[in-house]
Every structure is written in C-alpha cells, then in structure tokens.
Sequence to fold (619 residues):
Amino acid sequence: MPDNYFARYLPILIHFSLAALLATAIVLLSWIIGYRRPTRAKLSPYECGMTPVGDARQRFSVKFYLVAMLFILFDVEAVFLYPWAVILRDLKMFGFWEMLVYIGIVLVGFFYIWKKGVLDWGGASTGRGEV
Amino acid sequence: MSLAFQASQALPRGTDYLRILPELVLSIFGMIIMVLDPVVDQRRNQKALGTLALIGSLAAIASTLWQARAPGLAFWNMVQVDTFSVFFHFLITTITAVVILTSYEYMEVQQIRVGEYYALILFGAVGMCLMSSAVELVLIFIALEISSISTYILAGFRRRAAISSEASIKYFLLGSFATAFFLYGVALMFGATGSTSIPTIEQHLRSGSIPVLAYVAIALMFVGLGFKVAAAPFHVWTPDVYEGAPAPIVGFMSTAPKAAVFAVLLRIMFQIHAPGRLGLIWVAAALSMTLGNIGALVQQNVKRLLAYSSIAHAGYLLVAFAALPQNGIPSAMFYTASYAAMNIGAFAVVSHFGGAGERYVTLEDYSGLGRRSPVLAAALTLFLLSLIGIPITAGFFAKFYVFSAALQANLVGLVIIGVINSAVAAYYYLRVIVVVYMHDPRDESVLPAVPLELGAALAITALTTIYLGLLPGRVLDYASRSAGDLLH
Fold:
C-alpha cells in the first residue's frame, strides 16, 4: 500500500498544476495583450461608491471588540439550536431537558456579562465590574 | 429513518453521568462563582469565593473516589473511567485544592479582586480531568482547549504588571499554534486509520502494515503535546510565561496541565503503540534535560530558574516514555505525582515571599532567608532537595524508577545523559540553598507571617514529598495496576 499511497493523490496534484497554470496564463495574457490607459478615477481604491475620507487606522473603543466577540459567542450558540430543532422529536424528552441545561449555561454567561456592565454603553460604568 | 433509529438508541444512561461526575461538579461550582462574582462585594467577599472554589475541588476529590468504585466506559466509548484515569483525576483535583489554598494570601497581597480567578482554575481543572479520562482524540482536543484557554487567561492575571500581559499573549499565541499541530495530527490519524477512537486506532495499527500517515500523525500530535508539557525543542515560551504569570498559577500550570497532557501522551504512545515512538522521545528527552539544566545554571530570577528546571523535569519524565510499557507507565505516573508535590510547594514559598507586585524574586532577595524565616527556608530546602533527587524525598524515587525503567529497556545512552544532567542540576538548586542559609540577609525587615491557608498548603505538599520519598510502595502499586488496565 505505501508505494502507491501517494499515487492516489496524483489527480489532485494535476488539478493544482492546472489551476496554477490557468491563473498565471490569465494574468500574464491580460498584462501582455491588454491596453493600459490609467486615469485618476481608475486608480482610486474603489472605482465607484463613496469617496474615501481619511485613513481607516483610527483608534476606537475596545467595546467594539467586546461586542463583536460576544456576538460570535451567542451567534454560534443560537446556531446550535437549529440541528437540535430538526431532530427534537427523535431525541424525545431527553433532548428537551438537555437543551434546557445548555440554554441555562448560556444564560449564566449572559447574566455575567450583563452584571459586569459589558452591555452598558452609557459611559458611566456600573462601578462593579472592570472588564 | 436510520437517523431516528440511532437517535433513540443514543440516549445516555445514568452511569454515564457518574463517569464524568468530577468534571460536572467542578463546572457547576465554577458557574456558581461566575454568577456570584459580579453580585457580591469584592472588597469583602474575595475569600468567600475562594472558599467556594475550595469546597468545589474537595467535592471533586470525593466524587473521584466515588467514581473509582464503578469503572467503565461512558458516552459511546468516549470517556473511560479506570484506575489510570482515577489516578490522574485524584492528582489534578488535589492540585487544584492546594493551589486554591496558596492563592488566598496572594490575591490579598497583590490586590487582585476578581472572583473569575477561582472560576477559571476550576474550569481549567475540568479540561484536565476530561483529558485524562477521554479515549477519543476529538474529545481530548476539546478538553485540551478547555484547560489551555483557562491557563492563558490565568497567566495574565497580574494586570498591573506588563510582564504578565506579555506572558499571557505569548502563551496564547504559541499555545494556539501548538494546538493546531495536535489537531492536524488527529486529522491525519483519522485519515490513516479511519477512526479517532483510541482503542479502534490501536486495533487498526496492530492488524496490518502501518501507513506512512500514522507516523506523521504521531509526530504532529507529539509536537502539540510536547509544547504543553514544555519539552524541548518546544520549550522556548516557558521561562517568559512562568516569570510573568502569578506565582500560585505557575505552580498550577507547571503541574496540573502537565499531568493531564502526560496522561494523554501515555495513552497515545503506549495504548496506541505509537509507531516511531522511540526516536521522537529519545531526542525530545535528551534535549529537554540538557537545555533545561544548562538554561537554569545562569538564572538569577528564582521563577525563571524553576521554569528551566521544569523543562528539565519534563525531560526526565519523557525518559519513561521511551522505556517498556510495563515499567514506563507506572514510573511516569509516579513522577507526575511527586513532581506536583514538590513544585507546588516551591511555588507556594515563592508566592508568599514575593510580596506585593512580586518584588522579591531574584536570587539575592533570598539571601539570609534561613535567618529571617526558618520555617519558610526549611520548606523551600525540602522542595529543592526533592527536585535534585536526594533520598527520602519524592524526587529520589521518581528519578530512580524512571531511570531503572529506561535501563530495563536497554536505553543506556539516555540514562547516562539523564544522570549527568541530574548532577548538573544539583548545582543550581544547591546554589539557592547556599544563598538562603549562608549569605547575610540584605534586608532585615520582618517577613509577614505565614497565614493558615498557605501553611496548610505547605504542610500538604511537604508531607506528600516526604511520604512519597519514604513509602513509595502504595502509590507505585496503584500506578502499576493502572498500567495493567491501560494495556489490558
């Protein structure tokens, strides 16, 4: 088995080389054959839409990151409910209670961030938590 | 239809929950602390949360002992409770309890008023317990992550010290990178054998010729796990992280996660009969012993010195992995237990002596400690002697069993490297003892008294160190039986 083991991956190798060849060919051909008449508008980062205003590298509140992280956490947790809902009938009451435990744990997390003042955007912190 | 059939078959039984009872208990206590932490007043109730965590870890010890009476598989052969996993559960939960005891005073002195600290220790212990009882590589990966993520955060708990944040970030970046290696190894092992369950992989590898992929998979998994136990050449993070992290946490993360990861390594190396095991282990063990000890020779900071010594000890431990399974497994298990006792003890002294902001951590600060606090100095000396491997301490028998196991497997070269290294190691441990007893104190100020909790932790670790050094028989017998269980 070991000698023709890698032979089985030969089609993938061929596929890779074809893809690389095609990509190089397209870029090269357009470079060689194509006309180039640059204008100011064409050289701007976004040819259509809003005109850019200043640099994107500004400082902004760390709260954005915190909210983004929490969004991902709770989003993933919510997505987990879908497959559960599909087979709820087969899981019977066990699945129901198991999900209640799961949601309970999520709620503990929710309670925690709430009390720590993460959802508090007023500026004046609740004084308790430092996050 | 087949889905419906499987789902109705797949309901867990009551015994399944018994077999993850310590993990459940620890998680519940961790969550209670998370709920209480924002509600109670931190200035007054810091100790209450710590005590709750202590009760949680004691309950976990009790449930481990209860669980030991009904060994078996649980959750569709993903978790296995046997003497082997009970040994590590007991070790990890005990370490957790002792570390919580050493943390009380530290949190007070450093003025860290956050209850998450205790919750994270408990959550970390959940991952470590699960690691030692999981027999399914994906579950092991999840457990590894639970334990790692908790320790990443714990490493950065001295928020006022930049060095601590640095430690946390370094540990996090390199640690995630290492976990990726482990996961890649798991994926390749699945490709090679068609399963992620350890018993199935074993059968598959035993039955026919071993595919090339299996070698690569073992090597990648070893890289990931080698990082977690700080084995060379994956050790570079260790000194910086140990220097920056809070001292009680260093005591925790140099023992408990290491014990858990060594349990996983024992399962992978011996239960799977890892192909190519000897070469890998030989190089890693020899490198860890040598680099760890050479690095420790020049350290002026006691935390960094102990960090390098922990690399060297990972090396001694890995020697056992190169030996034959019948001797290698029990000697490795005995080593993790004795190393835990002496190292947590040493870091308990370091964390007490460090003072506010961990100011006193260099070797010169320790000069004259013997005169300033005879008890503390005596405890530190005991732990250091044990780390050297002097008889009647745990370290002696730990090294003795590892080296004799290696000799029985005819690994003379590795044993010679190990013994030379032990001699080198004696120099820097003794240097600390000389400074403690022979030098004049630079600072005559009176040291704060050792509080009750820290005293209890020191007593537990010191007694365990001496007990394992005088009567190693019972623990070793138990470890031998576990080895039999592991190899059936």
Summary: Chain A has two domains: 2-43, 63-115. Chain A is about 65% helix and 0% strand. Helices of chain A lie at 2-5, 10-33, 40-43, 63-79, 81-86, 88-115. Chain A touches chain B at residues 1-2, 5, 87, 89-92, 94, 105, 108-109, 111-112, 115-116, 128-129 (CB under 8 Å).
